[in-house]
Amino acid sequence: MANNLVVIRTALKETAPKLQACANVVATGVGYKISQGKRSSDLSMVCSVTKKVSAAKLSARDLVPATIDGIPTDVVQTGRIRALQSRTGKHRPAPGGVSIGHRDITAGTLGCLVKKNGRHYILSNNHVLANSNDAERGDAILQPGPIDGGRFPDDHIADLENFVPITFRQPEPPSECPTARGVVAFLNAICRVVYSNTRYQIVNIRGQENLVDAAIARPLSASGVTEGILEIGTILDSGEAGLGTAVKKSGRTTGLTSGEILQVDVTVDVQYGAGQVARFADQLLAGPMSQGGDSGSAVLDNDNRLVGLLFAGSDNTTIINRIGNVFSTLGLSL
Fold it and tell me: What's the CATH number of domain 5-77, 3.40.1700, 3.30.300, 3.30.420, 3.10.620?
């Protein structure tokens, strides 16, 4: 009977009202029983509770029996189940994972709350909170971001406090390399033959390597923000991610996604639009777990340790700043 789905579904229809009358039970359903943290092959009646408590603290009527008509039961702690609010809407208090941005950008993601000198700050990217170096300390930060309807002053949630400037790569004078000059001369000759106005030029690209795309903003009030992250919960600690580390993020565009660190010690050229390119060193690379608007998301491991700050990606990759570099550069802690 323990694996007869039809029988269990029929029994649950009759039993569900009694089970949901038990203290803390917020949902009932049919699922595989979890034993010692692992899913078994046995189907069960699953009771979702706001919080697990010992049997000694429950009355007889509130105890979920171990079996019902020979069918095993299981109790799973889920917390209070709430209707989900849009990540692009206005949140007060605002958690990590929702839309935010400098008043002159589109929108990114509120990563999480961090501390500096005993005070809480919002952590996200430079290009989210500081408009890719074009902002000034004290500029208004909106939640939701402007593209999601955020307007000043109604949605003014914080002021820009500090950011790490991004160094963009600059062209140098033409190269003196004979081989390069020969290749360019050949290409320009072809352009002339086909009557094209296009001409090629050799340049060297120079620029300092960056470590982080990060900024912090000072909330206007402590009640306007909260330490939790949507669909993830509370950050328990900070940590280091290595090859193979399972990670997750909660972002404005794609919500809760998970992935794996596929590369470490990554040096990457990131396009910022309008021909601006910045090179970043000592980055983490994961698979496709983000899209535009997820920039600024806090990246955690499966133990809810903060390990990175998401800032860039492509259709099949996600680039993440190491959280140790973010914290040391801006003088932050949890």
Answer: 3.30.300
